[in-house]
From TrEMBL:
Homotetramer. The gene is fbp. Residues 199-332 form the Fructose-1-6-bisphosphatase class 1 C-terminal domain. Its cofactor is Mg(2+). This is Fructose-1,6-bisphosphatase class 1. Binds 2 magnesium ions per subunit. GO terms for molecular function: fructose 1,6-bisphosphate 1-phosphatase activity. Mg(2+) 2 binds at D114, D117, E281.
Length: 336
């Protein structure tokens, strides 16, 4: 029986063998993984812990915060503020950036996260997760400002998510492929269970919230209609549909067996490019998908090329199996 590879050993090899990541980044990722373990513990308590239901407050997104949104946010802040690896953090649940107490020499990384993704699934025991993205703090000894975070997704140095489902699984890239780690609760450690994740270029499975159909733009309507026409239609094959409404769970399915995920612009809020947030949902997920051989666009351009203008800005998201994403993107260009 080959010895299992822990997250620590995997990261040490990325640092020492491949020289791919510096020790500061390895240590930061270990801190984030430990925080995800703690969040998983709270998630698993459910009704037995005081973690379900709403907190009665509203976040900067205009969403009613769930107790677990706040718990997960606090776990990530607390775990990282003393680590010494960070200059600052940003979160879906916090209006402004969070400067790390400067009692230490300032760390060189910026950590962004969606502490609890899929909040509408918390109280119904459906998979939820945490999404994170790591950027480098720009050079210079001035104070950290929001503009330091406004880097395109292609500047990320690490990205990942942890899905709290039947298993707790951490999925991570540092820029040379994607690896999956499953939490071994007896050992209390993440164990490598899939290395070099690959997304098939073709698929028969699409993920979109169909209740928004009447609000979609033409390219998306055309693509989904063709999928629904099945083998008698222009695609010549039948499609399946999935929508879990936790991005981490829908993306994890795609990382595992392929598919296309779409949360496109729609007419409900025409001034907003989409529902999902660029900096801590679309960028980390977009990089992971690309690193696994998939594609991620906003219908017009590569998500990772989008120049952010604001910390909490939203973006239209089309990601997954490359040939399907290319098709939807081509439809956007045809109908532009
Ligand atoms: P969050 O819970 O962090 O606010 O994110 C929820 C997002 C994403 O996880 C999911 O894909 C999408 O909202 C689901 O939206 P609908 O409920 O409109 O389908
Ligand atoms: Mn939210
Ligand atoms: Mn989210
Ligand atoms: Mn969230």
């Amino acid at each position: 029986m080959s010895r299992s590879i822990s997250l620590t050993r995997y990261l040490v090899e990325k640092q020492r063998v491949d020289g791919h990541i510096p020790s500061q980044l390895r240590l930061l990722l270990e801190v984030v993984a430990r925080a995800c373990k703690r969040i998983s513990h709270s998630v698993n308590k459910g009704a037995l812990g005081d973690v379900l239901g709403t907190a009665g407050s509203e976040n900067v997104q205009g969403e009613v915060q769930k107790k677990l949104d706040i718990i997960a946010n606090e776990v990530l802040i607390e775990a990282n503020e003393w680590g010494g690896h960070l200059a600052a953090m940003a979160s879906e649940e916090m209006d402004a950036i969070y400067l790390v107490p400067n009692r230490y020499p300032r760390g060189e990384y910026l950590l962004l996260f969606d502490p609890l993704d899929g909040s509408s699934n918390i109280d119904v025991n459906v998979s939820i997760g945490t999404i994170f993205s790591v950027l480098k703090m720009p050079e210079g000894d001035r104070g950290v400002e929001e503009r330091d975070f406004l880097q395109p997704g292609k500047c990320q140095v690490a990205a990942g998510y942890c899905v709290y489902g039947p298993q707790t699984t951490l999925v991570l890239t540092v820029g040379d492929g994607v690896a999956m780690f499953t939490l071994d609760r007896e050992q209390g450690s993440f164990v490598l269970t899939q290395d070099d994740v690959r997304i098939p270029a073709d698929t028969k499975e699409f993920a979109i919230n169909m209740s928004n159909m009447r609000h979609w733009d033409t390219p998306v309507k055309r693509y989904v209609d063709e999928c629904l026409e099945g083998r008698e239609g222009p695609r010549g094959k039948d499609f399946n549909m999935r929508w879990i409404a936790s991005m981490v769970a829908d993306v994890h399915r795609i990382m595992t067996r392929g598919g296309i995920f779409m949360y496109p612009w729609d007419k409900r809020e025409p001034s907003k490019p989409g529902k999902l947030r660029l900096m801590y949902e679309a960028n980390p997920m977009g990089w992971l998908v690309e690193q696994a051989g998939g594609a991620a666009t906003n219908g017009h351009e590569r998500i990772l090329d989008v120049q952010p203008g604001q910390l909490h800005e939203r973006v239209s998201v089309i990601l997954g199996s490359k040939n399907e994403v290319d098709r939807v993107t081509a439809y956007h260009h045809e109908h532009a």
